[in-house]
Amino acid sequence: MDTILTATDQLFNNMGDTPEMVRQARILAQATSELVNALKSQAESHPDSEMQKKLLAAAKMLADATARMVEAAKVMIIKPVFGHPITSD
Q: In terms of Cα–Cα distance, which of 5, 59, 58, 52 is closest to 34?
């Protein structure tokens, strides 16, 4: 969870630095993927079916939001918003 908060903070603190924004988006995508997997695992082991549904719904929402962020990062790689060229890591 700390990684998600830190990467999100760094993403917004580096507005205008496209390569750094892309790097932070990658870190954020990895961390949210781990959280999605943890939510799914928790849902599978939870005895309450209603709570299972809520956990799986939260995992899906997070996965969908992460997918949208990844798509935005891809656009930044192809067409940088602030005119900075993208360099590979």
A: 59
Domain boundaries, the chain: 2-78
- Cβ(30)–Cβ(71) below 8 Å: no
Alpha-carbon distance 16 to 83, whole Å?
Answer: 9
Cα separation, 21 vs 28, whole angstroms: 10
Q: Quick: pLDDT tens for 20-42.
A: 888 888 899 999 999 999 999 99
Could you tell me which CATH number the domain at 2-78 has?
1.20.120.230
User: Is the pTM value of this prediction over 0.70?
Assistant: yes
